[in-house]
Amino acid sequence: MKKKEQKHEFLFEKINYKILLIGIGVIALGFILMSGGGSEDPKVYSDAIFNFRRIRLAPTTVLIGFVITIYAILKNPKKNQ
Fold first, then answer.
1. For 78, phi and psi rounded to 5 degrees?
2. Cβ contact 16:70 at 8 Å
3. Distance between CA 78 and CA 10 in Å, rounded?
4. pLDDT per residue as tens digits for the range 22-58
């Protein structure tokens, strides 16, 4: 008896994985932008935590990364052929 040769197929195509990695990179960039802003001395108040980068830019970057990641999951390259 011959064993059936099983063809292993990936769930996504190569382009999906590339877009997924880009999305994860954008999310990581957003969290890096969000970091910092504290002061060395805990008794000293610092306004740096409320600047534009941490309040607007970083969360927007993270959300864009999530949108890119969702697009990578939902994209079906077989449908385009």
1. -70, -25
2. no
3. 13
4. 999 999 999 999 998 777 787 888 788 889 999 999 9
Task: Assess contact for 20 and 72: CB atoms under 8 A.
Answer: yes
Q: Is the pLDDT of residue 70 over 90?
A: yes
> pLDDT value at position 37?
73
Nearest Cα neighbor of 66 from 32, 34, 24 is 24
Residue type, 29: L
Residue 50 C-alpha from the chain's centroid: 23
Phi, psi dihedrals of residue 19, rounded to the nearest 5°: -65, -40
Instruction: For residue 30, give the nearest of 1, 2, 69, 3 by alpha carbon.
Output: 69
- Look at the block and give the residue holding tokens 């292993």: 8
